Each structure stands twice: as C-alpha cells, then as structure tokens.
C-alpha cells in the first residue's frame, strides 16, 4: 500500500511538472505600481532620470526589461530595471514618471498592473 502511494505521488508530481509553464520565470506578477521622479542616484549607480523608461524592483537584476501593463486601461510600456524598491507594502514596482505617463497613471499615483519579464 505504501509503495502504491509513493508511485502515485511520483506520477502526480511528474504530471504537475509537465503541466507547469516551461517559462515560469517569465510569468507575470500582479500587484500595485507607483511612480517617482527624483534626480538621485539609483541603486544601480546611475542617476535617476524621470524622462527615461526605467523602474525599481525588489529582486530583478539591473538591466532586466519588463513589460508593465495597466490592468485598468490596458496600456503597457517596456521599462528597464535600474533601481531597488518599492519599499511600501503591496507594491511590486516603482516606475519613472515617463513610464507612469505612458500607462496613464500619473494623476492616480498608483495602478494595478501586471509585470512580465522579457529578458
């Protein structure tokens, strides 16, 4: 009986692994985004440029490009990660002012977004 359960569990795990997306590392995160427009030095060492299409993320490597989609209006933008953050609970990405403008979220300040890694 124990061997049968072990075999069923093994088959179940193999089936689950087979059905998972092959590119799970690129699966979208969904959460809240905010924006900022400082002229300070970013965590990557470059000066923050509010006119550039950049963003801060807690863990993605610097230079990673992600597509950020505003789930309220369908607009999207590709940004490059060059900073760390956000450091406010519930938020998954901080965008430059230019990126936030392309998403139509300047006046609201925050938006529900999906973030998909491109590289």
Short description:
With 119 residues, this protein is of the alpha/beta class. It contains two helices and six strands, in the order αβββββαβ.
SSE blueprint:
Blueprint: H1 2-19, E1 29-36, E2 54-56, E3 65-70, E4 76-83, E5 91-96, H2 97-103, E6 110-117
Parallel strand pairs: 1-5, 2-4
Antiparallel strand pairs: 1-6, 2-5, 3-4, 3-6
Explain this structure to me?
This protein has 119 residues and is α/β, with parallel strands linked by helices. It has one domain: RlpA-like domain (Barwin-like endoglucanases, Beta Barrel). It is 21% helix and 33% strand. It has two helices and six strands; from the N terminus they run αβββββαβ. The chain has helices at 2-19, 97-103; strands at 29-36, 54-56, 65-70, 76-83, 91-96, 110-117. Strands 1-5-2-4-3-6 form a six-stranded mixed barrel. Strand 3 (65-70) and strand 4 form a beta hairpin.
Supply database-style keywords:
119 residues; alpha/beta; Barwin-like endoglucanases; 2 helices
Shape by Cα distribution: globular
Strand order of the largest sheet: 1-5-2-4-3-6
Radius of gyration: 19 Å
User: In which range does the helix fraction lie?
Assistant: 10-25%
User: Strand percentage, roughly?
Assistant: 25-35%
The CATH superfamily is RlpA-like domain
CATH architecture: Beta Barrel
Spans of 5+ residues with little confidence (pLDDT < 50)? 11-24
Amino- and carboxy-terminal Cα gap:
47 Å
Along the chain, the helix and strand elements come as HEEEEEHE
Number of strands: 6
- Highest CATH level, the class: Mainly Beta
């Amino acid at each position: 009986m124990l061997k049968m359960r072990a075999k069923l569990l093994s088959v179940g795990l193999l089936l689950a692994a087979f059905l998972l997306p092959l590119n799970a590392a690129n699966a979208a995160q969904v959460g809240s985004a905010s924006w900022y427009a400082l002229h300070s030095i970013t965590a990557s060492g470059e000066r923050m440029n509010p006119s550039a299409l950049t963003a801060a993320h807690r863990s993605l490597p610097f230079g990673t490009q992600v597509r950020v989609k505003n789930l309220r209006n369908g607009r999207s933008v590709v940004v490059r990660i060059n900073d760390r953050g956000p450091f406010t609970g519930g938020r998954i990405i901080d965008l430059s002012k230019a990126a936030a403008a392309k998403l139509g979220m300047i006046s609201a300040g925050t938006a529900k977004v999906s973030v998909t890694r491109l590289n």
